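Example complex used in Figure S2.
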Amino acid sequence: MTLPLASISRTDWISLAYIVTIVCFILALRFLSDPARARLGNSIGAFGMAVAIVATFFQPHLKNIASILIVMAVAAPIGAYAARAVKMTAMPQMVALFNGVGGGAAALISLADFHEAIAKSGAERLSLSSSIAVVLSAMIGSISFMGSLVAFAKLQELIGGRPITYPGQSVGNAALVAVLGGLGIAIIAGYEHLWALVVIILGSLAFGALFVLPIGGADMPVVIALLNAFTGVATALTGFVLHQNVLIVSGMLVGASGTLLTLMMARAMGRSVANVLFGAFGTLQVTAAEVEAAGGAVRPTTPEDVAVMLAYGQRVVIVPGYGLAVAQAQHAVRELATELEKKGVDVKYAIHPVAGRMPGHMNVLLAEANVPYDQLKEMDEINPAFDQTDVALVIGANDVTNPAARNDASSPIYGMPILNVDHAHNVVVLKRSMNPGFAGIDNPLFVDPKTVMLFGDAKASVEKLVAAVKQV
Amino acid sequence: MSVSFLIELTVLILAAFLGVEVISKVPTLLHTPLMSGTNAIHGIVIVGAIIVAGIPGQPIWLRIVTLAAVALATGNVVGGFVVTDRMLEMFKRRKPEPPAEADKPQ
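Predicted assembly (578 residues):
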């Protein structure tokens, strides 16, 4: 028996195209988890997306195609330009931004659909399941939008990275949640007025901001991963409203994998997700004067002294941190390592799971500078080796080397796994100034008697070191 | 509850389990690119944006809202995939590098 093609309707063809998209996305996620095939995975995902977009334009009753295409033609190059122009160091906040706009789109879709549904009458009005989906996608999409914008602003340092708290915070948040929940239930119960959903969207935007503001900049990667999962869920919910399986499946794939990724990142930082979200790093602040009183002063040094120390050492471990990334010093660091290797020094890089601003971020930056992959050592591998290390060269890393995480139960980062830099025979810290790190916590490593400090821009300092090592 | 809703709910639950399964073994190295990749994939919300923007007879304010949704979703899709590709490009380029490195002039 042959299947007459004519029996396949136009909507069937569209649904089949969407199935192709779903398969592409699943393969994309699978391949993205494997270093050798990750880039291929991303391309497969992009292909699946293109199939879905083209198929959607064949949806029956679709109007305004010209204006939709014009908007896409304007928005696409802006997105591509932003993604191309951004520096590797600014990648995390860019991901936050692209995530936020997706959440915003989901919220706007729910608003449009709600307007459409309440204008109709009888059986075409919102079903219970659709009204739940409308309310939830409006809420979650808005929270993700505003939360991502605040995360962007924090990482871009438009607003301070320190936790922002205010009196009555938890009471205020609880009241806001109660109002939003009440309005949501009213809509689901049949109070179908547009203003109620608009208020939900505005209130959720406010909640998104209030939710992220108290979280310290160092925890932003976990927050972005979580908001990424949120946008996935909001997308899946719009699928319930529009009865599109492709949205339900793709959105939920992201919702689930994003949640798992959030847990993995939090684990890498040695903190629980609940701790990240609600345990705003205490406002405990130790001033420089108190540190001096407690354990002596820092010892500044010169590039020449450090060069001698490095060149006559046998084992040097470089500990790169976000300061290296900001100063774009990765190429200079590689040059320094090459010079040292010429002198017979064994050079390794110690990569903390959250070095940089996101897990894996530092690997990307060093790979960009062509640092051989086998020199990059993960925390568990390198930590036992610090005892035999002559010099640990800490470049713009702070919180991930803070021994207080191991020793001081009163420290806000107590329990976070750190690189045991203080076990090395000598420690050289390259730092711009004595400001505390991104998490806003002082570091006893800097006043350790084994530690010397080389102040200045990381790139300039490393270049001076390269020149000085060549002279030795 | 309608049959179609129950089917959609089934699909949602299965997708949730699949999402966890499919990335269960990812090295730390790839956390950031993977997050960025999943970020691009939820750009599929563009399908919903196009559908609502294509509803005829909307008032002006709603036309603006739906076209704004299309613009935001387009940014999510294009930016998401391009950023991910740029990150992964870094890993790719290293492969032919080691042999060439030895005779590279310093």
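The two ends of chain B are 71 Å apart (CA to CA). The longest helix of chain B spans residues 60-93.
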